[in-house]
Design brief:
2 copies of one chain form a homodimer. Chain A has 12 helices and 9 strands. The first copy, chain A, is of the alpha/beta class.
Amino acid sequence: MTGKTDTAGFTASKTAMLGVGLIGGSISKALITRGVCREVAGYFRREETMKTALAHGLVTRGTMSIEEAVSGADVVILATGVDAIPPLAECAAAFLQKETLVTDVGSVKGLIIDKVSAALKGRPDVLFAGSHPLYGSHLQGPAAGAKLDPTGKLAVVTPAKSRVNAEKAAVRTEALWQSIGMHTVRLDPEEHDRLLAFSSHLPHAVAGALARMLPQEADVLTATGFLDTTRIAAGSPKLWTEILCANSKAVAAALDAMIKDMKAFRKALGKNDREAVARMLEAGTAARARLCEQMPPEEQ
Amino acid sequence: MTGKTDTAGFTASKTAMLGVGLIGGSISKALITRGVCREVAGYFRREETMKTALAHGLVTRGTMSIEEAVSGADVVILATGVDAIPPLAECAAAFLQKETLVTDVGSVKGLIIDKVSAALKGRPDVLFAGSHPLYGSHLQGPAAGAKLDPTGKLAVVTPAKSRVNAEKAAVRTEALWQSIGMHTVRLDPEEHDRLLAFSSHLPHAVAGALARMLPQEADVLTATGFLDTTRIAAGSPKLWTEILCANSKAVAAALDAMIKDMKAFRKALGKNDREAVARMLEAGTAARARLCEQMPPEEQ
């Protein structure tokens, strides 16, 4: 894993943002605001979303035609939910200009890299690498995206190793994210998926379980702690079903590890083994403290 | 479960706050600020904590003698960690004035009610009911307590049914919390412990598990979601070992239910049963939405 930040040297004349929701919208806005790109054409499936995005100045132009969005674009960003990304790449393939950079923002990389690489097989002349910008919220849509700033956040870039120009595409994708003030880190798609299973997908599954198990009589007895712990459960079930199923192997392995850990904790509690309980809680507190050392207080 | 708020009609001439940390400190400050109590004597085991509490104006007087703190007090609040509460009650018993109201702020009620009732067996002339003010943070100590405001928060009051004056004590305890702007709800200690296992103790156990299972290589890949979900794991392992062990039966039952739920989720994922995965995620999202309907946006 290597990281670097270098905001210089990337410009594009036209970016096609295919999907302008929370993440796509925030990226579009940053590209325009920072002067990285003169024109950002947004592709929409719903007129209402298009109106909202235009009203917030997230794109310079909106269209419901993929062809119109990608024609003449030197950057194409696939920014829908995980399942829609490969079919979008397939629809766009024929209209891509030579040397165009194609990337996506999906939370799972292995399956997407494979499927998008397959979709772009007939276009070895375009550049493709996968991306995962690591920020967001439990909110959705362009209006929420308008308030989200990628500056200082991390984007993981995962090369599509089966393609001839994998390295060139990855380098250019890193430059794209750096141009809007993001840090980048490069990972193999499989390593990304294994680690994100623990840092994002498992927490989502667990937050949902905690929320749905709460007896309704206990609603009034929840405080900040419960709300923090279950906040991500508010995220779209549709989008998260796609993410968890697209990374099912790694998420299942993380769930198995979590179940094993919880059984050990339950056993210690059942035996009133206070030392074991304390030791496990201390390990959790230490791990969290390790994370907090790496960030400003307001984000902890 | 019944709730009411009535801030009128409760005053005390002297409150003894036995333990002036996050919760005890915030209550002391509210009692003084709202003019409920002229004198709040804090009992401390460490001189440093006493200095901090006095510097923040959390108590009007500090002492390291239990006798001095409780002498002449008409309200005594046991505000230490769970394990120290019963021995404190035992030490204070002989020095309590007739008709004094004794309550505690422990996160577990069954065991505390039993033990404190036993400690006060020789003092049927004092009033005792258990309490659990439902607010806090992952921070500790009087300096953090000075920034914490109980206004608008909920206090659960659990009667000590084995005592002759259980009802009178519960009513007076409710009036105490209402005098500092809190809402109150009355619950049986066992019902409190069963419900809090789901709304607070299980989330704590789970947040710790998520934090300690994170591979260190994934530290850089954590974002807001992971930090929210594991925030409470930053809480004191010592205090939480006491809480979880004092409520071990109910917490173990909640852990069993959670493990069962996670196994079902893992099974659905392993079979790529997208409908079942979606249904479980939807149930989590719906439960959280139910909670959010009951509170202002900034707390969600």
